UniProtKB/TrEMBL annotation:
First-level EC class: oxidoreductase
Keyword set includes Nucleus: no
Organism field: Stephania yunnanensis
Name of the protein described by the UniProt record: Malate dehydrogenase
GO biological process: malate metabolic process; tricarboxylic acid cycle
Length: 332
């Protein structure tokens, strides 16, 4: 029997990431090849014409799974009945702007969108925040949508996770699909900690630790980490535009694994509400290794954390605590 369509919201849908993301969703990359979708696309009034152009292209592409398109600048219309919300829209930092100015703009955006989701989204709506500062935007959204379970509000660090997989695959000249269980800890910012201490590579003689195969701790503890941390900036420098394609692809990966589950023995990185695991302060949205089953994520427990890693985990947690305080100061 055919499945009922899922309503999927994409905010900032006329932007670069939205333009890359909506055809992926319509093609079944996010929710599976047999799951019909109705796309809800939201953007600001100045982008209304461009948004309508995206809708025209979706119609022209004749995606079999796409059962309807709502293109609107009205947040209530956009949020009504949605079961998945991908929050791509946000206020980007512009030259000369202080961090607090950007935070203040995003706090007001996410407060308004959270209120609309709270009142109008489906009861068990899953939310993924992509717009930066992603962790703290997600925290604000959680605060102002109290009826959405805290486990249903996440932020995107899968992009960083995928970047780490890509760097290891290139370094070892192996298929990226043979590398697994890297971890992104913390903030989707330059303090994030890409950790390979538990990662493995499938070889002809079984799974081997990444650290053993790379055999270069200097690179793994130095250049590898900074490359993943700074990859977004490097792409902007090369492309003169942000990493829209990889962000859209990793947003699909994040939701797909959350909804359909992670393969046995494999974990992924998601920015989720901290319960105090690994000594991370509870109440932050922090990236952890997670497994997913039956539409629920669970933080992987019991991984050893060495002294080098402990400092990295604490440093990114400290930045997130500062961001949280800054965001809350913008509310008063």
């Amino acid at each position: 029997m055919a499945k009922e369509p899922v309503r999927v919201l994409v905010t900032g849908a006329a932007g670069q990431i939205g333009y890359a993301l909506v055809p992926m969703i319509a093609r079944g990359v996010m929710l599976g090849p047999d799951q019909p979708v109705i796309l809800h696309m939201l953007d600001i009034p100045p982008a209304a014409e461009a948004l309508n152009g995206v809708k025209m292209e979706l119609v022209d592409a004749a995606f079999p799974l796409l059962k309807g398109v709502v293109a609107t600048t009205d947040v209530v219309e956009a949020c009504t009945g949605v079961g998945v919300a991908v929050m791509v829209g946000g206020f980007p930092r512009k030259e000369g702007m202080e961090r607090k100015d950007v935070m203040s703009k995003n706090v007001s955006i996410y407060k308004a969108q959270a209120s609309a989701l709270e009142k109008h989204a489906a009861a068990n709506c899953k939310v993924l925040v992509v717009a930066n500062p992603a962790n703290t935007n997600a925290l604000i959204l959680k605060e102002f949508a109290p009826s959405i379970p805290e486990k249903n509000v996440t932020c995107l660090t899968r992009l960083d996770h995928n970047r780490a997989l890509g760097q290891i695959s290139e370094r070892l000249n192996v298929q990226v699909s043979d590398v697994k269980n890297v971890i992104i800890w913390g903030n989707h910012s330059s303090t994030q900690y890409p950790d390979v201490n538990h990662a493995t590579v499938k070889t002809s003689s079984g799974e081997k630790p990444v650290r053993e195969l790379v055999a270069d701790d200097g690179w793994l503890n130095g250049e590898f980490i900074t490359t993943v941390q700074q990859r977004g900036a490097a792409i902007i420098k090369a492309r003169k535009l942000s990493s829209a394609l990889s962000a859209a692809s990793s947003a699909c990966d994040h939701i797909r694994d959350w909804v359909l589950g992670t393969p046995a023995g494999t974990w992924v990185s998601m920015g989720v509400y901290s319960d105090g695991s690994y000594g991370v302060p509870a109440g932050l949205i922090y990236s952890f290794p997670v497994t997913c089953k039956n539409g629920e994520w669970t933080i992987v427990q019991g991984l050893g954390i060495d002294e080098f890693s402990r400092k990295k985990l604490d440093s990114t947690a400290e930045e997130l605590s500062e961001e949280k305080a800054l965001a809350y100061s913008c509310l008063t």
